[in-house]
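Recall that a protein's primary structure is simply its ordered list of amino acids. Everything else, from secondary elements to tertiary packing, is in principle encoded there. The following example makes that idea concrete.
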Amino acid sequence: MEEWQQILQQSLSKPEEIAQAFGLNVEDVRKLEKSFKIRITPYYASLIKEKGDPIYRQVVPDLAEMDEDSGISDPLAEDEDSPVPSIVHRYPDRVLFLISHVCASYCRFCTRKRKVGDPSKINPLYVEDGINYIRSHKEVRDVILSGGDPLLLADNKLEYILKSLRAIPHLEIIRIGSRVPCFLPQRITPELTNMLKRYHPLYMNVHFNHPDEITPESSRALNLLADAGIPLGNQTVLLKGVNDDPAVMKLLMQKLLKVRVRPYYIYQADYVQGTEHLRTRVEKGLEIIDGIRGWTSGLGVPHFVIDAPGGGGKIPLLPNYVQSITDEAVVMRNYAGQVFVYPQVKQAGSKRAKKVASNGKNGCALMSPVEEMQEVLY
């Protein structure tokens, strides 16, 4: 048994352990465990500074999860786009391939609560069906390995899947979605990364939600992956009491860049059953993007998206930078709230075009761009 597997076995998972570790009522924890599996790695538990802090809120169960008046079990309607049990085929040229039912720790806001932790719903028996589906659909050029967490498979099992996929001629890109570098960084070993780099082009999207998750241990894991030539992107979920603050989110993005991870998405939390206590209003996400863009490097500005309920896919949202658009000009504001005007391309027959043409014909000096805009706007 490898070291990371031994560490995983030491995770807090029994209701009695959880209750004792965090001062909870054991009967309450038993009820919560019935609705969604609980596991917290010893490493991630060590990052909790106090009850209710941003790390705690992500993995320690809360009685608010029992609120049945909020959310739905499959908010993204993934099951409707699942031609075989392991595949979600929503976009034209790419598929989601579920290859593992387990996670190192279980996020309380998980969008796949209905499946994750249940081997009857995400099962190794379905892997061959998934590979065969991808092989028979030549329009698929990109596959995202997910679950559960693909990196909790043993190296040889993961390699079998990667090797099988790489043998499919029309498949160009393989991506892995994992929270292991955050929850169990010890899993990222030289043996694993040496295996992964044999299957390029291979990309990985990791999942960090708070600056305190960027530790020496997680930094070592991320740099090991980057050294293997794997481009790393980060997907953050916007969560109340965790990262719903522009300063916190900006610091997270800056710390990610230092360990060679490119911020990719900030997700509005999915409308999942029992997660109302963790969701924010959409305006908060727009406020956060406003507090990042221009205030730090463009490398550190992710897309803010809503994965649309009902299977509409990811829809990007932006603060209102454009104030108005006319035939003559675009009026816009910058990150600091200052207003600027950009002249539109001249159209034949427009007042502005006629004025500029007339000046040229009469031998007069052409107006400067600033004078042209003054003429148009005032």
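The CA atoms of residues 5 and 187 lie 8 Å apart. Confidence is low (pLDDT under 50) at residues 353-378.
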